[in-house]
Design brief:
This protein is α/β, with parallel strands linked by helices. The chain has one domain: HUPs (Rossmann fold, 3-Layer(aba) Sandwich). The protein is 36% helix and 18% strand. It is built from 9 helices and 7 strands. The protein has a 7-stranded parallel beta sheet, with helices on both faces. The longest helix is centred in the first third of the chain and has 13 residues. 31% of the residues are buried.
Length: 222
């Protein structure tokens, strides 16, 4: 089994930080719309793994959403910005919105590494479904060598089983570090929120109040 695939946060917390180097989490996604589940995951990961900041990166043209109409990129960006504005550890990045064509994680990480040079260690935050399909991502082998991953596992997934599957997938890879963890999650999905809006059902408490107001004000997801 590959040695640098870990369960839990101990391996990272026991690793001394390099002097002058920050640890930033990358929270990417369509955020269509952003909801309290996204925010809960980001805050728990930040605290559990002692990250200095979480960078929210709304995707511009996501390749995995091909065939489904995605809300305007600027509207999704605005919703994320207003959802995280009260958390000093959260920051938004527009790098994918200005990119022509599909938004790929490998391009984003390379851009961030160039922008921040050697001052930041990057941790890509993702879910169980995505991490188990990592071999389908563009230049996935190079991606796991560039940044570390924190995979948040929800109910229905076993840590050891996920670790075993990843080890088999990455048998010939050299991942920088992958951390698999169970965190308390709120079972909320953007898909369900869009469905509720279309059916004129309440989305109160599913999204931040200012995001809810923005959605209704701009007649999104009708």
């Amino acid at each position: 089994m590959i040695s640098n695939i870990y369960t839990g946060s101990d391996a990272l917390l026991n690793r001394p930080k390099k002097e002058g180097v920050k640890r930033f989490g990358i929270m990417g996604g369509t955020f269509d719309p952003i909801h309290h589940g996204h925010l809960t995951i980001a805050e728990w990961v930040r605290e559990a793994y002692n990250l200095d900041k979480i960078l929210f990166i709304p995707s511009g043209c996501p390749p995995h959403k091909e065939g489904r109409k995605v809300c305007d990129a600027l509207a999704r960006f605005n919703m994320v910005e207003m959802a995280i504005k009260d958390n000093p550890y959260f920051e938004i990045c527009a790098c994918e919105l200005h990119r022509v064509g599909y938004s790929y994680a490998i391009d984003t990480v390379r851009q961030l590494e160039h922008q921040y040079e050697e001052k930041v260690e990057w941790f890509f935050i993702t879910g169980a479904d995505a991490i188990l399909e990592l071999d389908t991502w563009k230049e996935a082998k190079q991606l796991v060598e560039l940044c570390e991953f924190i995979a948040v596992i929800r109910s229905g997934y076993q840590l050891d089983q996920v670790r075993s599957s990843l080890s088999q997938m990455m048998e010939d890879w050299q991942p920088k570090g992958i951390y698999i963890t169970h965190l308390p999650l709120i079972e909320i999905s953007s898909t369900n929120i869009r469905m509720r809006i279309k059916k004129e059902l309440s989305i109160r408490y599913l999204v931040p109040k200012n995001v809810e107001y923005f959605i209704y004000q701009h007649h999104l997801y009708r």
